[in-house]
Amino acid sequence: MMKAYLVTVALFALAFSLASASDPAPLQDFCVALKDYSDSESAVFVNGKFCKDPKLVTADDFYFGGLNIPGNTYNKVGSNVTNVNVDTFPGLNTLGISLARIDFAPYGQNPPHTHPRGTEILVVLEGTLFVGFVTSNTDNRLFTKTLNKGDVFVFPVGLIHFQVNVGKTNAIAISGLSSQNAGTITIANAVFGSNPPINPDILTKAFQLDKEVVEYLQKEF
Fold first, then answer.
1. Rounded CA gap, 174 and 103, in Å?
2. Which residues pair with 172 in a beta bridge?
3. Contact indicator for 154, 182 with CB cutoff of 8 Å
4. In angstroms, rounded to a whole number, what is the distance separating the alpha carbons of residues 1 and 192?
5. I want to staple 147 with a disulfide (CB 3.0 to 4.6 A). Which of 40, 110, 151, 190 is the partner?
6. 181 φ/ψ angles, rounded to the nearest 5 degrees
7. What is the DSSP letter of 179?
């Protein structure tokens, strides 16, 4: 009886820990990340960034400028993501939020990707975007929507999603993320551009493609 009770308690504890998984709550008013680690080489690794001495923090540590500047979309996918996360904005450290500006050339796309550590909420500032996400196995259900200026859409944490500019003009969107460093895994880059490469035989079977096609895709990424 006691063994069954302990197993039940353990399962509940695991469930609650998974349900509350997110950036840890801050234990102080702020913790501006250190850009220079020269004074912390002997320190232990932490889940995040080392904190700047609060006495040395200024208003500039909580400021980020330049998000009004368009990103360069002259690339294969026709889009550019300007990340405002803890790596570029140290004041976000421990606060559990970040954002990004996404610029799209006409018919450009932010290709299928995931954010393993954050939910994304997107608002369209200019243009028209076709967006969507796919649920996990085994349903793999696709949800899509066409968004216009002022429309908002949310992409649940960890799910594969995408955005495509379906207009003849440039498009701009702002995304908010529920993590100071949500991470990005672009599916095609990760699968066909891994370092070192995944054995082509594995990808041939997984994607049901000819091996020559897989090897060609690996060269492209």
1. 9
2. 103, 126
3. no
4. 51
5. 151
6. -150, 80
7. S
The runs of H, that is alpha helices, within the chain are 2-19, 187-192, 200-207, 211-220
CB 176 within 8 Å of CB 121: yes
For β-strands 79-84 and 160-165, DSSP reports them as unpaired
Sign, CA dihedral 188-189-193-197, equals negative
Which of helix, strand or coil describes residue 101? strand
Q: In the structure, what pLDDT confidence band is assigned to residue 38 with cuts at 50, 70 and 90?
A: low
**Predicted model pTM:** 0.83
DSSP 3-state assignment of 152? strand
CA distance 111 to 77: 7
Sign of the dihedral defined by the CA atoms of residues 81, 82, 85, 86, in that order = positive
Of the candidates 119, 123, 93, 132, the one whose C-alpha atom is nearest the C-alpha of residue 182 is: 119
Q: How far apart are CA 172 and CA 100, in angstroms?
A: 11
pLDDT tens figures, 92-105: 998 999 999 999 99
- Enter the tokens of residue 95: 């606060």
Task: Give residue-wise pLDDT tens across range 174-194.
Answer: 999 999 999 999 999 999 999
Cα torsion angle, 25, 27, 32, 35, sign: negative
CA atoms within 13 A on the CB side of 142: 7
